Amino acid sequence: MPRSNVKYDPRKLMLLVEARGKKLSQAGMGAYFGLTGPRRHDTVGSWERGQSKPHMKLRPRFLAYLLDRLRLAEEPQKFQRLWASIMVEEWEWEPLGKAELLPYFLAGIPAAIDYSPELTPLPPPPRSFQKPLPAEPLPSVDLFLGREAAVAEVTSLLTQSRLAMITGMPGAGKTSLAVKIAEQWRTAENSVFWYRVYPGHAIDGLVRELAGFLYWRGKRELWHIYERARQNNSQPPDPGNLLGQMFTLLADEPCLVWLDDFHNAETDRLVKEFWFYLKRTMRMGSVVFLITTRRKPSLEDAPDAFALSGLSLDASADLVNTQLAPPLAESLLRRLHHRTAGNPRLLLLAAQALTQHQDPADLIEKLETTDGVETYLLGEVDRTLTEKERAAMVAVALLESPCSREAVEAVLGGQAVHDTLSGLKEHYLLNTAGAADDRQYFLHSMLQGYFGRLLSYEAPKMHSRAGKYYRRQQEALRAAQHFLKAGQPKQAARLATEDAWASVNRGEAEALCELLKRLAPVEMDDLLRARVAVARGDVYNFLRSSSEAVSSYQFVLRTLPAEASVPETRELRARACLGMGDLRQHDSLVDARSWLERGLEELANADSSIRAELLIKIGTLSMALGKHQEALHAVQQSLGLLPETPNTLRMRALITQGAIYSSQGDVAQGHTYTRRALDIAEDLHDHFRLLSILNNSGLENGILGKWGDAEADFLRALGIAQQIGSQVEESKLANNLGVLYTDMGRLGEALTYVTRARELAENLELYDLLPFVLTSLGDLYIRREDWQAAEEALVEAEEAAQGPGADYPLAEAYFLRSHVLRATGRTREAVELAQSAVDLAHELDLMLEEGKAWRVLGQAHLAEGQTKPALEAFQRSLDLLADQNAYEAARTKEQMDLALAIALQPL
Known about the structure:
single chain; 5-stranded parallel beta sheet; 7 strands
């Protein structure tokens, strides 16, 4: 017989018991949920027997428990049945929202799970965008012996874990093994993406190349971000901000992503973020990752690597003897195998040397007595080459990355090399990728170093030819690199700075930065050196290297004369000031604005897009400093300089203009400009701007009392944030939705979104956002009259709001905690804390927060029986809120009417 205090259906609750099974005891489950005390299993037991239910604040923990700890993310139908039967029907929790589910289903919510509401898809891209080049074809492997067991083992690892890593010394055959695995993996349903990692062109380049790969698979959002930046001649978002979107789009693709030479990414600034997202993607989805690297990376949770050793004696014999006639004697083979440790590349070099050596025993004896096996064999191979073959090998080494036959011929002054390259490929001295009509040639790292060192006095002339070739191909960075090596730094500098953002958009930020650093000490005229320094500062700024960026901008201001009549000189100095203002805004708004104003002075009266950008930034900073009229004047000036046609700068100016009006209390007028900016963002298909504008529009609609429109704006923006993988923006929007739902009285939904915002803010270490989120959580618990939870959240908010610029949430945390103190009978403390909130909000010129704080102070006075000061406080609140926020003014009016009723009661 069930106990009399059972409130919930035990038959349904068996689903919860079955899910836990033997994986966890009741005590273990209690520990997972943070329950304390020796009898925490009793609490879990009462949930499972139907005698009580968990507190609603444990909802996010329950999601993690079911989907992550019990791995029900892999059984979505079972999870859906459990959640619907217990959490919704029995415990009366809110239905699931996509925001709380997405972290567990990166590839998209399974169709088996119902959630609400449906999110609006991203707008389509304009048809004029350029298409990306197809993904680079796999390298070719013409000879593969003795690795069949390794292929099977690594393929099994991929099938089980969706991630496998092959390590081994240079020449061990990692690439050949990976090609065979990739060829087996590729079917009509599955595709393969190969990316060879180069120093200075690692994660940045990978994100861009994968954006192109995804484009051809029907997922075009990521590519359009790069293409939009290219069209606007502006910098793209930091690739670190695109990694989340990339992995979200990639997760459900039935493909293999092969990252070759991954050891070159070990020092990349984004490698840890990349690894974090890769590991998360492994939890769900179809994509698999194959990594080849010389050594296992020192990254958290890196998998055990498949260490590729040398070939067996029999496989070594097969490899060598396919190149020799007659075959090598068994005794000599044993000695060669021992000296090379079965390294396939060394064995192939030895076979090539033996083809031209009259006495194989003599060569192997010398090989046994030399210290550098690799260097000795390369020298022997070099002696077997004709002059034409050696020249071709040197040319490919000079070009470094995969190159076409046309590029090799250009470097050699037009000499035809088709047959030469084919012969070198047949002897395994050249690696290739792609079909015959679009074949790319490159050298193994062993041969690259050796033939690269053979460059003679002809090297400058060859580099110059390479620079001219790549300039014709419109590959500016590659051309500039060769011109610098050719001893033509001015040509390199002009190319590198002509369109620096184009190189950044190609994923070449690190490589461009390295080139600009090498150009810094070169003798050039002051104007060209300043162009290099400005570009270097911009790229350093993009790469988050602020101290180096400051040095670059300061160099421009020191080098170029302040009083100059040359327009380019003035523009370069203004660009340096613009960069300095951008860097300083995080530390000092006043200092940042003075840099921007100096930039305007540098331009004198010249009208240009740089002037417009300076004015927009001045408007933004002036608004933040509370100088609204100055801000409005600056933005209106910028709009007068810009064409009427949709463009990014005009959109930014309208966003700022809307924010200025709204911050002054004219929210309706501000909203008009915000919607105009929204129209431009739609025309430009600019998802990042669209997201922030929708957020502003939602806040304005909320203040105007248009809650349905506010909800639609926030949900659409949240959908964009999730689709482009921007978790920072997702956390802000989830918090705003939580605040809106709190005001609307939809407290269950509010808790879902605010909790999600808190989880993201803590995981991403968003210390500037966390106080706002904790304050929102405290307000939500106040509405639920959960005073203990409210006080805990608000105390945390006050502790989190101790950093610079955190005063705004601190004022709100004070008056909300005052509300808790009053509700729990601590009225004197409530009065004191509410007064602190009023003082702080007034000091910061926060009219809305000051108005709310006066209301809470009035409530605290009323609780102490002090009707007159209460009425005075309510009147001050109403005066501040009447033109600011209709909803908050109505709340004050309600409290004021209550105070008047008390005051008019007969004694």
